[in-house]
Design a protein that fits this description.
single chain; mainly beta; Jelly Rolls; about 55% strand
Length: about 110
């Protein structure tokens, strides 16, 4: 939480998604699943340096996004998606990334 993570993604055909991604990608794309903990309910931002599809799964259901955006110029952040999340352990589902590497961060919106 609040720190960038260099994720290694698997080829899409090898990823066993919990839910069908909103944008699954093709056989040459990459994806993965990552658990994260939210200590206090609130709005959280998923920031990344790619353009992958992002789903946050809570209690087996995809949470609707609350906002979308891009990072500041020259920051390397190409996509940001915000979600209103309850406290607890959640799943970040990444799909349709063009490369096997992705830097991603989950952080509270202040």
């Amino acid at each position: 939480m609040g720190a960038a993570f260099d994720a290694t993604l698997a080829p899409t055909p090898k990823v066993d998604y919990v839910l069908e991604p909103g944008k699954p990608g093709g056989s040459v794309s990459f994806g993965g699943l990552f658990a994260f903990d939210v200590a206090k309910a609130g709005r959280y931002r998923i920031a990344q340096n790619g353009r992958s599809w992002v789903d946050v799964i809570v209690d087996g259901k995809a949470v609707a996004s609350a906002a979308h955006g891009h990072g500041p110029e020259c920051s390397g952040i190409t996509k940001m998606v915000e979600y209103d999340l309850p406290s607890g352990r959640h799943l970040l589902q990444i799909a349709a990334n063009g490369e096997a590497a992705l830097t991603v961060m989950v952080a509270p919106v202040r």
